[in-house]
Amino acid sequence: MRNLLIAIAMGCALTLPVVASETSVAPAASAAAAMSQGEVRKIDVANQKITLRHGPLVNLGMPPMTMVFGVQEPGLLDGLKVGDKVQFVVEQKGSQFVVTELQSAQ
């Protein structure tokens, strides 16, 4: 019985570093997966809003559609024009969906 407990303890001690290293990689992978693809349909600089036709928003569990988003920083809209392909990150803040990262995909 004592040998069995020692074997279990040794097995746990040897697998703990592997489990720890796998979990430390997960946040970086999920951050990359949060980037979504879209196309600019309308830009409203005065109200800090952008209309995007987008693919699935995996981080929000949302299917593809066209919708209006607020932008976290007005500078995110600089240099964009209707028809541009973009990569972006959207976060839900209260009842609003806000673009927190936006870059040209071209």
Observed structural traits:
38% strand; 5-stranded mixed barrel; single chain; alpha+beta; 106 residues; elongated; 1 helix; OB fold (Dihydrolipoamide Acetyltransferase, E2P); 2 domains
Task: State the end-to-end distance.
Answer: 64 Å
Give a short account of the largest sheet.
Answer: 5 strands, mixed, barrel
Number of strands: 5
Protein structure class: alpha+beta
How many individual helices? Answer: 1
Number of domains as seen in the coordinates? 2
How confident is the prediction overall: mean pLDDT? 83
SSE order, as H and E?
HEEEEE
Radius of gyration: 22 Å
Any low-confidence stretches, pLDDT <50, length ≥5? 19-30
**CATH architecture grouping of the largest domain:** Beta Barrel
CATH topology of the largest domain: OB fold (Dihydrolipoamide Acetyltransferase, E2P)
Strand order of the largest sheet: 1-2-3-5-4
Percent helix among the residues? 25-40%
Percent of sequence in beta strands: 35-45%
CATH superfamily heading of the largest domain: Copper binding periplasmic protein CusF
Q: What overall form do the CA principal axes indicate? A: elongated
CATH class of the largest domain: Mainly Beta
